[in-house]
Amino acid sequence: MSGCSQGKCSDSNIPFSFGMFVLAPVLVSTWIVWTRQKKKLDYHRLNLFDRNGGNLLKKKLSKRKKSANAQLKIYTAEEMNRATNNYSDTTVMQRCNPGTFYRGSFSDGPENREVVVMKIPTVEKSRVEQFVDEMIFLSQPHRNLVKIMGCCLETCSPLLIYELHGDGNATVFDCLRDHGSDSLFFCKNRVKAAAGAARGLAYLQSNPRPAIFHGNICSGNILLDADFDAKVFYGVASGLFEGNAVYRDPQFINSGRVDEKSDVYSFGVVLVELLIGGVALASDRWGDDGNLASWFVSLIEENGLSQVVDDEIMLSEEDGRVVRELAAMAARCLSGKTGAKKSVAAAKANSNYQFLKTPKMAEGRDCVTVRVEYLVNQLPSSTPSKPIIDKVDHQLRQVNEKDFEPQIVSVGPIHRGKDHVKSMEQHKVRYLLQLLRRRDRLSIEKFVSELRNLEEKARRCYSASINLDEDEFVEMLLLDGCFVIELIRKYWFEDLRDKNDQIFQFDQTLIRIRHDLMLLENQLPFFVLNHLFNMTKMEDPEDNIYHLLLFFVEDMFPWLDVSKLDSKSDILHNANHLLGLVYQSCFSLSSKYFIENSGGKQSNLLRISSASELKEAGIRLKGITLWDVAFVDGVVKLPPLNISDKTESMFRNLIAYELYFPNDHPKYVTDYAFFMHCLIRSTKDVEILRGRGIISNFLGSDDMICPMFSRLGKNVVISSDFSYTNVFESVNKYNRLQHRRWMGKVKRKYFNSSWAVISFIGAAILLLLTFIQTVFCVLSYTK
């Protein structure tokens, strides 16, 4: 009996033993994998920490006094994740060069500390020691510098932690731009702001190993508190000038090197801004060449300071003396003459000057009253209409001016007469002659008579000053207009071409002309083209100006489908010029889609991950034939884009055209360029998009595409009424679901090929059969 009982006990333990036998290897394997992954992650972070100078920083801090060590704390990656809520979009304060700014919070003291976290580009190996020295130097408190409180060097992009100033702080740029009743516009406060900035710069350059050069001095990087004490914001020396072009000194433009003179020059620009009471971005004020330095220095040499200095700071004779001294300092800074560095030091000495506030009177009347009355009398009786053809904004031109310059042919007055386009003038005359030969009833006199009636209306379409008299302007309209009309007719009706016509003999010439006709500055008013076309209209039903123009440029725009357009549509008839016609034609069919997907006003600008990051999250990308960008069932659908050497210029001119739209008008191209900029951040992203049929690269190298979209985003503001709000929100919501990220990672790592899937299925079937066999064996044994 006892033996039988023991046998039953042994039989009952068989399932438990078998379960432990199966479970134990699984648990051990899981623990081993987790341990290896953790060690791998720790090893990766240690490598990053060393590469970013972490060990060197620890070594240098250990040699300093204990009080100095307390000024700069080294944080771990986990601490930074908690402080920024894993770098969520809600913590993003600003994205710009040279990094991204997040709002963070630390609870490592008696109370929470609010900080600014700046993610900077990877530090070059040759600059690691300089980077470490700068962090230590800038961690010391100074009344005129924003202090570095800590850093994190365990991430690919180093993180710098700055003290967060209260919401009441503003920048010099903000105060000058708003130009309200703020007392900043009193002379003493302007000098106080300049003096504080000068002290901050002088402190930077006092660093002995080596001297630190800011490289990005501008009115937007100088913070002012309620008492107008200035604090200069400084990241780390990047070796590159990241500021606006107007603040760049000539030496940097020629050599690309930032040094002491660069900061002195930029400080001189800030002084000019304080003197004139406005920001230095409006290039139309700086003379014909748009150079602020030469304009201001010449003004000082000609004793013309009173013409531009803000009247609000000239409240007394003593004020005038100090203003003249500051103007002389600014001129020395901008000219690079001897004594420019001393000008910065001299600016510091003026901070304690006491100013009088006696109002200046003119002939018994307040000077402000006289000035405002004069300005009122100078206003036109009605608000002038907005021009439809304008020079591209200076901020866009400075990225690459050639994108807006015609290569071979000028159309309109802006580029007329330039040397590199003069060779096409004979072709224009020849095309006019050929047009007249086909239309016997027309004459040059008839053309001129009709165009004289349109001259005044056409001239009002241009905002740039036109140095053409009435006769020259009408001649330009005739030659340029007839050239465009004859060109598009010859392109469609091949029998009209002359066998010796060089434009159609060489494809490259035709491509360059097509490119030139799509430049914003190289346009004729559409009503002029339409009038000339109707005067010379052929009996052929295919002779339709909308059809011919759009067919001529169809190959340049992947979103343009002429076959789906109605030539009688009001959208086409309301076009301002050829570029506007193409723009309206591209997006008229998609306007309903954009309205449905904009999602309304957004208080915070959304972003999405790059193509490679989306792939890691299990999100696929797919090319589609229509424009309707969408996110459906984990798939981002995008229209195809052919990228050639003309693509960047095409985007830039369309973006520049959108700048003249009202705020409530969709910015289709600007938003699309931003979308692609988010997706393309590396060559790997380009490879993914190319493999999915979304982009076709005709540039020759994938390395050229990423910088192109990065340049397209410079000096461009994304409107709050973003066209892809719903798509971005859907992608980000999908991306935040951890189980989908895990599934995407598993698919990518273990099921990246059909053979891997087949092998897994085979192994699963084999395991199932083994399990069934084991169960039957156990059951048969118990019986």
TrEMBL record:
It comes from the Eukaryota. PROSITE patterns: PROTEIN_KINASE_DOM (PS50011). This is Protein kinase domain-containing protein. The chain crosses the membrane at residues 16-34, 755-781. One of its GO terms (molecular function) is ATP binding. Coiled coil: none annotated. Keywords: Membrane, Transmembrane, Transmembrane helix. InterPro entries: DUF247_pln, Kinase-like_dom_sf, Prot_kinase_dom, Ser-Thr/Tyr_kinase_cat_dom. Residues 87-356 form the Protein kinase domain. SUPFAM superfamilies: Protein kinase-like (PK-like) (SSF56112).
